[in-house]
Design goal:
By secondary structure, the protein is mostly helical. It has 2 domains: 83 residues, 434 Repressor (Amino-terminal Domain) (Orthogonal Bundle); 61 residues. A hairpin with a 5-residue loop joins strand 1 and strand 2. Helix 1 crosses helix 3.
Length: 161
């Protein structure tokens, strides 16, 4: 499923692009329909929500022009989506972040942790994430285990007088 990078590591670029697009969309508070409406209006496109949904789930490839328009719309560089050569620890951190972004609870936690508008906090946040990712994974795991189970109860028969 993944593509091979020059170094021989398996890299699923469509998965990375899709999860990061979903993160950006949800971070701005857009539904798929709202994002399509805004992007179509701004750039004169005719993108459908189901296409963006498939791109987010890495079920469809993204066209270059749409990719560039979305980068412009979200005000991010193309490099935001491209895995860079990193040391092993940073690569593991990025993989774990990508996994967390697939989970709604994980996205909320990451969004909260990275919500500081001040750029000087980014290095500190990066270091904090290295420390807290294992705890975040445990929180998500426990939340999924402890979800209240829906229990269907039989209706009580009415007593006749």
């Amino acid at each position: 499923m993944g593509r091979k990078s020059r170094e021989g590591n398996s890299v699923d670029i469509y998965h990375i692009v899709g999860s990061k697009l979903r993160y950006l969309r949800e971070d701005k508070g857009f539904t798929l329909e709202q994002l399509c409406e805004q992007v179509n209006k701004k750039y004169g496109l005719q993108i459908k929500p189901n296409l963006l949904g498939k791109i987010e789930r890495s079920q469809s490839k993204i066209q270059t022009d749409l990719f560039i328009h979305l980068c412009d719309f979200f005000e991010v560089e193309l490099s935001f989506f491209i895995p860079s050569k990193k040391n092993k620890q940073d690569q593991i951190l990025q993989e774990k972040l990508d996994e967390l972004l697939q989970n709604p609870t994980g996205r909320e936690i990451i969004r909260f942790l990275t919500s500081s508008p001040n750029q000087k906090w980014r290095p500190l946040i990066h270091e904090m994430l290295k420390i807290f990712i294992p705890q975040i994974e445990i929180i998500i795991h426990n939340a999924e285990i402890n979800k209240p189970q829906k229990v269907l109860k039989a209706a009580k028969s009415r007593e006749l007088l």
